[in-house]
Design a protein that fits this description.
heterodimer, A: about 110 residues, mainly beta, four-stranded antiparallel sheet, 11 strands, B: about 110 residues, six-stranded mixed sheet, five-stranded antiparallel sheet, about 0% helix
C-alpha cells in the first residue's frame, strides 16, 4: 500500500548511457513532480505534470525528458548521462497545484561513473 | 539565494530536550510547509501553515509564522532519538495560475543524542 513508489532505488551507470526512472502513485493525485537533491541536500524541482500535462519545466538540460502516460505515472528518461547527473531523484505527488502538501517517493540514487 | 533558509544548519540536543529551528523566506506566500527527511529516505510532510495563521500544532510539533518578518519556526518538544533527521521548510507562492511550485529551504540537520 505504498503511496508513491519509484524504481529503481539505486542506479549505477557509466557516462554516456541512457537510463529511466519510473514513478507511480496510488493516492489519486492529479499532479506529479520530479525533484533533484544534490550532495548538499538541496532539493530543486525539475518538472511537474498536472493531469498528464507538463506545467513546470525548470531549467533542465534537454537530455532529461519526463513522460506521463497517465495521472498515476510519471517517468524520467535521461540521455547521455554525465558525471554531474549523479544525485538522488525524488518523485512526488499532490492534489491539484503545487501549493498543497506533497507526498514523496523513497528516491532513486543515481551514480554516474 | 534560497527562498527558504533554515537556521541553524545543524543542531544536536539531548533526548528529552526541545528543538527549535527557524526558516526565513523572501517573497509573499500562500502557505509554508515543514518536511522531515530521514537518512536515505524521501521527504515526509509534517505540517502546513497558511499565511493568515500564526501558530499551528500537531502532536509534539508547534509551528509559528510571522509574515511581517517572513519567518517561521518549528519547535519539537520532548525530543526522541527517532526525531533525528533533516528538516526542511518549503514555501508556496501567492500566485493562482495553476503552475505553483514549492521552494525548499536548505534544511536543518537535527541529531538527538540518547
Amino acid at each position: 500500500d505504498t503511496a508513491v513508489s519509484q524504481t529503481p532505488k539505486y542506479l549505477v551507470t557509466q557516462m554516456g548511457n541512457d537510463k529511466s526512472i519510473k514513478c507511480e502513485q496510488n493516492l489519486g493525485h492529479d499532479t506529479m513532480y520530479w525533484y533533484k537533491q544534490d550532495s548538499k541536500k538541496f532539493l530543486k524541482i525539475m518538472f511537474s505534470y498536472n493531469n498528464k500535462e507538463l506545467i513546470i519545466n525548470e531549467t533542465v538540460p534537454n537530455r532529461f525528458s519526463p513522460k506521463s502516460p497517465d495521472k498515476a505515472h510519471l517517468n524520467l528518461h535521461i540521455n547521455s548521462l554525465e558525471l554531474g547527473d549523479s544525485a538522488v531523484y525524488f518523485c512526488a505527488s499532490s492534489h491539484s497545484t503545487g501549493r498543497y502538501e506533497q507526498y514523496f517517493g523513497p528516491g532513486t540514487r543515481l551514480t554516474v561513473t | 539565494s534560497q527562498q527558504g533558509e533554515e537556521d541553524p544548519q545543524a543542531l544536536s540536543i539531548q533526548e528529552g530536550e526541545n528543538a527549535t529551528m527557524n526558516c526565513s523566506y523572501k517573497t509573499s506566500i500562500n502557505n509554508l510547509q515543514w518536511y522531515r527527511q530521514n537518512s536515505g529516505r524521501g521527504l515526509v510532510h509534517l505540517i502546513l501553515i497558511r499565511s493568515n495563521e500564526r501558530e499551528k500544532h500537531s502532536g509534539r510539533l508547534r509551528v509559528t509564522l510571522d509574515t511581517s518578518k517572513k519567518s517561521s519556526s518549528l519547535l519539537i518538544t520532548a525530543s526522541r532519538a527517532a526525531d533525528t533527521a533533516s528538516y526542511f521548510c518549503a514555501t508556496a507562492p501567492l500566485s493562482n495560475f495553476g503552475n505553483e511550485k514549492l521552494t525548499f529551504g536548505t534544511g536543518t540537520r537535527l541529531t538527538i543524542i540518547p
